[in-house]
């Protein structure tokens, strides 16, 4: 498991609100705009579908929660990955730090895929903040 | 499948450059050697500099094999030559000659003729004329089962719409180009369809969709044991990586600015 990048964001909210949203896979489409469909296939396991062209048009996502960390493990797409979210309460903010790990041998060079993937996930974090702070 | 290092090495040899000549002003020769031997993967900046020196263009695509516009070999050779050397004004002038027009006999020759005319018009900025020519090339194409040239014409119209920033229309034509795709038998020119779809999304600033088509394209090219358009795919990916990086930096800078404003309750001076 190789770490590709880290993104972080401060959200004006509390730890419970942020964590509840992160562990609820059905809210994913609200802050990851590429996702068009989330279906539960078994306990804590979800089928994710994107209508638009995507590296992972379909993937199976497992959601796990441990202490102050939520982890998504994606399998079945071209790019298999783990995305962990660590959350810390600071005054009126919650600091969310996401780490992205690659789990398989992906066909494109990591040096080139890194900035594209990092930007896409950073935009998702921005959308998460916007959704929670509204 | 040929990897990035092999692709760079072959392009360098095609241009008759030594490692020293290509590396000059860009990186150490030892680094280029490591790249070509797949020991080191270059970052986006380095790859773009190499692509520029190797004269790989984003917007000018040569087909693996050109389509005949005539039963006269010299006419087809002329088109081949002008296309491969990206001499589009000369291509336009050649295609507009009466002797060429008078020699169009079959529907496939007409299809190819109007396709090349459309491409020449795109490259010489006659955009609305290009759309008319490309539509003429599609006149006898079955839209449910287009041949490869028909698919390329649909993609070229999509490209024109991306130049006009018309995303919905551009996407519509990408979808037409890939209609009933799985049923189709392989031709090397089809590699270009993935690249062009990625290029259209790149023009529309949709980096994720562009990356998705590049990933599919590289997979498709590998599956058919080809290398045509592989260099273009890698170099477009490098361009995508660079703009994504710059965009991400801007996002981070704005976030830091917002945090500063929130902490100190005042706006940062935007202008000095």
UniProtKB/TrEMBL annotation, chain A:
<protein>
    <recommendedName>
        <fullName>SRPBCC family protein</fullName>
    </recommendedName>
</protein>
UniProtKB/TrEMBL annotation, chain B:
<protein>
    <recommendedName>
        <fullName>HTH cro/C1-type domain-containing protein</fullName>
    </recommendedName>
</protein>
<dbReference type="InterPro" id="IPR001387">
    <property type="entry name" value="Cro/C1-type_HTH"/>
</dbReference>
<dbReference type="InterPro" id="IPR010982">
    <property type="entry name" value="Lambda_DNA-bd_dom_sf"/>
</dbReference>
<dbReference type="Pfam" id="PF01381">
    <property type="entry name" value="HTH_3"/>
</dbReference>
<feature type="domain" description="HTH cro/C1-type">
    <location>
        <begin position="8"/>
        <end position="61"/>
    </location>
</feature>
<dbReference type="GO" id="GO:0003677">
    <property type="term" value="F:DNA binding"/>
</dbReference>
<dbReference type="InterPro" id="IPR053163">
    <property type="entry name" value="HTH-type_regulator_Rgg"/>
</dbReference>
<dbReference type="InterPro" id="IPR011990">
    <property type="entry name" value="TPR-like_helical_dom_sf"/>
</dbReference>
